[in-house]
Amino acid sequence: MTTTAPLPHTTAANANATGVRVDTRALLACAAVAGPLWVAVSVAQAATRDGFEPTRHALSQLATGSLGWLQIANFVIAGVLATAGAAGLRRVMRGTPGGVAVPRLVRVIGVGMVAAGLLTMDPADGFPVGTPKGVPESMSWHAYGHMAAGSVTFIALIAAGYLLGRHFSRLGNRRLAVVCRVAATVKLAGDAWAMSGGEAGALTIAIGTSAMFALLAYVAVHYRRSA
């Protein structure tokens, strides 16, 4: 039983069919790179920035301080790549269960990441070095904007994971369907744990986000092989 969706049909008038395939593969490459790039750059900074504690500080907080521009650029570049990748997923998933909703959600994720990068968090809880411990008494407008963009992105990630589970289940690829649902559940559980005030909530959010980004990258590679 097939587990991949066919590419859109080309007509005889469109003689450059190879060009269409290459373009689709390039877009899928963008989707495959976006999440792992964001995670790799974030982890590298988390390991090297003075005062950063992964169990206490969200990866988004790396966008503050003198080196904050690195994480801002990381958000924006990854978001642009994800937005472009959504177009590739729309082509290869057309006509399949979730073939409309999933690419739209990936586009929302990309736009949300760009917004989250441009709207930075406030320094808090000892980071960057010299910032007082604890939560600030007030928040800036851009910190509120970051929280809104992040919430939309997280919801879209979870929804995309579960819809991909249904997508691959209907196509007969039950193993990948289970992987999709597990990744979405890890993200959901990590966010819920953090929102409930659980210990190391920042880390559980990061783990769940990384799991979903890895899943989206794998799905993009999965379809790129057949493009």
Structure description:
With 227 residues, this protein is an all-alpha fold. The protein contains six helices and no strands. α1 runs antiparallel to α6 (201-224). The longest helix is centred in the N-terminal third of the chain and has 32 residues, at 17-48.
Index terms:
mainly alpha, globular, 227 residues, 0% strand, 6 helices
Helix fraction, binned, reads 55-70%
Strand content: under 5%
Supply the helix-strand structural class: mainly alpha
How many domains would you count in the coordinates? 1
Low-confidence regions = 1-22
Query: Which geometry do the CA atoms define?
Result: globular
Spatial separation of the terminal alpha carbons: 18 Å
Number of strands: 0
Average residue-wise pLDDT? 91
Biggest sheet layout:
none
Radius of gyration: 19 Å
- Total number of helices: 6
What oligomeric state is this?
A: single chain
Order of helices and strands: HHHHHH
List the helices and strands and how they pair.
Blueprint: H1 17-48, H2 68-93, H3 101-118, H4 141-170, H5 174-195, H6 201-224
Helix pairs in contact: 1-2, 1-6, 2-3, 3-4, 4-5, 4-6, 5-6
Short structural summary:
67% of the residues lie in helices and 0% in strands. The chain is mostly helical and 227 residues long.
